[in-house]
Amino acid sequence: MAAEIRMPQLGLTMTEGTIINWLKQVGDTVKKGEPLLEIETDKLTSEIESEADGVLLAACANEGDDVPVKGLLGVIGTKGEKINIDEILVKENKKENLDSIEEEKEQTTQQAGETIPAKRIKISPLAKKTARKMNVDYSEIIGSGISGRIIQRDILNNMEKVKSRVIDSEEKIIPKEVERREKLSGMRKVIAERMFKSHNEIPAVTQNVKVDVTDLMEFRKKINENREQKISINDFVLKAVAKALTANRHILVSLDGDEIVYHHHINLGMAVSVDNGLIVPVIKDADKMGIEALSLTAKDLAERARENKLNMDECSGSTFTISNLGMLHVETFTPIINQPDAAILGVCEIQDELALEEDKVVVRKKMRISMTYDHRLMDGATAARFKVAVKDLLENPMDVIL
């Protein structure tokens, strides 16, 4: 009997996945536990394994398609087994969303007092949702999916054709050269959605303060002299933030409807740049770690993030986030809050500045930190006190490790 392959939910926040590559083709023999295809979510790329032995009878989604959680990916059965793929897709569409499916459903329209059968349209729920959002008429689009089914790619391609023309003042159609276009990847798309959502939903305020890290630089140099595993400035920042949060737990909040959620754990999200995106692995219970353990954990998470080897649990559950752009020579910036956190701390470049000390001009090392916070959950003075606590720790590095 044929077995269905469905999109798994790899994390609590996952709603859909993008098919990157089919590792097996229709007609190939597969074994239980053998990788069938690769998918990409907002956080990572994963292989989907077969849950049964048999032959891949059908691939119900193409590479590049976005498939919702529990959506049908393909069918595995015995060699020579016959299946009606059109019937399977009809049932699948009705199961996914009865209100948005027009596949194999005959509608009627009233025209001049007569009942005229409407054209039958095969369209995936995701394609229809995209068409509605982008105001695209899909009634004349020829689908490239199985049995002529319209998929999201067809909607996006149709949009490109429309945008490749402009209408001049005399209503003449003038061809226009189309720039190279590339569909948003699963990660890039979710980043765009989340950043837009955060920016529009949250009344965010950013405060900037300059920190004198001259003593910190000297202190770090001394403790790293005979140390194989070097402690970075970012490690000190992580430890200072974790320590400051223990005395300012009112920062560890999030908004759930009309309720404020107070978090007990200090879980530091750490923004890591990867190819074509950004991942925020989470250091759980960072306040309970010494600086060396914190350093090892941070480096391990960052390395595995770039190698796409993190699991979903390692990318969720943050209660405060840190984004360090200092190594990229950023002097100051406005970080966007990583929801559901209430705040995020941006770390900037360390620069030399001249200062007057005892009638002498000296060079001091200065670094800006930029904290963006949700004004619904905390006020300016509350955020400033926390920021000052971080500043004081960084300017007195011995206090960070004690």
UniProtKB/TrEMBL annotation:
Keywords: Acyltransferase, Lipoyl, Transferase. The keyword Transport does not apply. Pfam families: 2-oxoacid_dh, Biotin_lipoyl, E3_binding. Coiled coil: none annotated. Its EC number is 2.3.1.-. Residues 2-77 form the Lipoyl-binding domain. Residues 122-159 form the Peripheral subunit-binding (PSBD) domain. GO terms for molecular function: acyltransferase activity. It is an enzyme of class 2 (transferase). Its cofactor is (R)-lipoate. The keyword Repeat does not apply. Belongs to the 2-oxoacid dehydrogenase family. This is Dihydrolipoamide acetyltransferase component of pyruvate dehydrogenase complex.
